[in-house]
């Protein structure tokens, strides 16, 4: 199995899930005492969040490019940006390295198509829900998206930053998110993308009556498949 390069830390909560999933799925595929080969650079979310708040995405991109180059020099066969929102930087990172950046939305789109769905709801940060970098990837795969209304988007975004990235998962918040998913279903969503890598720690498939897509697990498994190909 080739070495997987990971840029984690946004947040550590979901980055730990990436590590866990890579090892479990690698063992599922390879058996015996075989587990994943991966190298993670975990950033300080506080530094990145301060740059985000200041709108300084160029500085964030420069940091990510530097990390991706280090991973490539260390022998990684690919790079994963372990956060849905930060995949908006994937084109800049890809342009700076010679190994593939496995975009999270491409992996999620393949999982959606495997279930035969054509329209899905999208939860995540405001950037993920409102900007086009994620939805455009899905459109390229023939998948339409539904996003929550303004109040729903504000609620989902605030919970991510105030609770989920701090490993706070409450029953009240679960109900709130399920209500948002129900509203997207009423607008035609056949499934729901849990488009922040912490959301799958709050919402499980057993909570929903439509398919939900665990973006962290899907992304991690796609990396293992690539590393074993």
Quickly list its features.
3-stranded parallel beta sheet, alpha/beta, single chain, 229 residues, 4-stranded parallel beta sheet, 10 helices, globular, 7 strands
What would your notes on this structure say?
The protein has 229 residues and is α/β, with parallel strands linked by helices. 52% of the residues lie in helices and 13% in strands. It has ten helices and seven strands. A four-stranded parallel sheet has the order 5-4-6-7, sandwiched between helices. The protein has a three-stranded parallel sheet with strand order 2-1-3, sandwiched between helices. The longest helix is centred in the N-terminal third of the chain and has 19 residues, at 12-30. It starts with a strand and ends with a helix. The model has no long low-confidence stretch (mean pLDDT 97).
On the 0 to 100 scale, the average pLDDT is 97
Helix content: 40-55%
**Strand-residue proportion:** 5-15%
Shape label: globular
Structural class: alpha/beta
- Rounded to an integer in angstroms, the radius of gyration calculated over CA atoms is 17 Å
Q: Report the strand count.
A: 7
Helix tally equals: 10
Question: Main beta sheet: strand number and arrangement?
Answer: 4 strands, parallel
Strand order of the largest sheet: 5-4-6-7
Which regions have little confidence, pLDDT < 50, spanning 5+ residues?
none
Write the H/E string, N to C. Answer: EHEHHEHHEHHEHHEEH
Distance between the termini: 8 Å
């Amino acid at each position: 199995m080739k070495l997987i390069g990971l840029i984690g830390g946004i947040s550590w909560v979901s980055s730990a899930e990436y590590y866990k999933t890579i090892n479990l799925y690698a063992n599922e595929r390879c058996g015996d005492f075989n587990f994943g080969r991966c190298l993670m650079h975990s950033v300080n979310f506080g530094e990145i969040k301060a740059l985000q708040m200041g709108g300084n995405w160029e500085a964030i991109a420069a940091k990510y490019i530097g990390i991706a180059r280090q991973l490539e020099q260390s022998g990684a066969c690919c790079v994963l940006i372990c956060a849905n929102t930060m995949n908006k930087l994937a084109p800049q990172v890809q342009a700076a390295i010679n190994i593939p950046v496995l975009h999270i939305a491409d992996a999620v789109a393949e999982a959606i198509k495997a279930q035969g769905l054509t329209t899905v709801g999208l939860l995540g940060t405001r950037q993920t829900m409102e900007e086009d970098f994620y939805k455009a990837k899905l459109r390229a795969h023939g998948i339409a998206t539904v996003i929550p209304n303004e109040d729903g988007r504000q609620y989902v975004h605030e919970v991510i930053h105030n609770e989920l990235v701090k490993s706070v998962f409450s029953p009240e918040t679960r109900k709130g998110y399920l209500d948002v998913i129900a509203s997207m279903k009423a607008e035609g969503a056949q499934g729901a993308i849990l488009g922040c890598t912490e959301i799958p720690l709050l919402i499980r498939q057993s909570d929903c009556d439509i398919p939900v897509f665990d973006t962290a697990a899907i992304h991690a498994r796609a990396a293992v498949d690539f590393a074993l190909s």
